[in-house]
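Hi support team,

I'm filing this because I wasn't sure whether my run with biotinyl-5-AMP finished correctly. The job status page said complete, but I'd like someone to confirm that the output block is well-formed before I use it downstream. Pasting the exact inputs I used:
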Amino acid sequence: MDPDQISANLKTKRIGKKIVVYRSTSSTNDVAAEYGKNRENDGLVVFAEEQTAGRGRAGRKWESGRADSILCSIVLAESVPQHHLLSLACAVAVAEAIGPAGAGSHAKIKWPNDIMLNGKKVAGILLESKAGRDGSFCIVGIGINCHHRPDSFTDELRPIATSIDIESRSIIDRVSLARRLLISVDHWLEVAQKSSRIVIDRWSELSVQLGHRTILVFNGAKFTGHCIGVDPEKGLILRLDTGGVRMFDAAHTTVAK
Ligand code: BT5
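And here is everything the job wrote out:
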């Protein structure tokens, strides 16, 4: 991953004006959080070839090998859409950047932050809010599995994880994907600032849950119902089997298998 190749003639307004690539780091979100303390670094992107302590939400691990993934974190230090809308916009942006793998089906979104190819997780997004000298800022961490083979994954992950190479039966060019990713995030952030409706409409087209039975665990209690949409402030909307409509916020909800 060469920063000059990623940034060459990159026509984004906000994202990727500065790009740094690390050979190895603990977590790109931690590196980006240092840059984010300076508001001038809005839009800065950190990539790493390897992460030694990649993380997901709620202390979970994000697994990756050496040079087999896109591991990146984007600093948003200026205006940031409200958290849940940002999460929806980022999911749309990542799914669109991945697009269809080979001749296969298009990458889809499993709320809140999983990106799926053919029913398996190919990418994850971790949003973190931080307090800085000039106010709060946000880090968008994105991990995309690129060159994994099935045996690259642990026994636990193999049934549920996949990579772009596996699904496309070819070898993805990570620099091109990184460029598409930055362009896509740039675009969907701008859209989110103007219209949550457009984000939700595209999210709805890409959602694996919308229109389907969904089982959620909220604060330890199980809820089953039919997913009827997403609210840009309150989360996933279910028509419950027990009657009534209820919204579930991502911070307190997990999707049951
Ligand atoms: C996520 O969390 O999916 C967010 C992952 C974000 C990773 C990026 S990489 C760059 C940046 N720096 C970081 O340190 N993180 C971000 P969550 O929804 O909590 O999902 C975590 C779960 O996904 C784990 O418990 C595993 O079950 C599964 N998982 C771990 N590694 C995976 C992988 N490579 N592919 C697919 N699934 C994986």
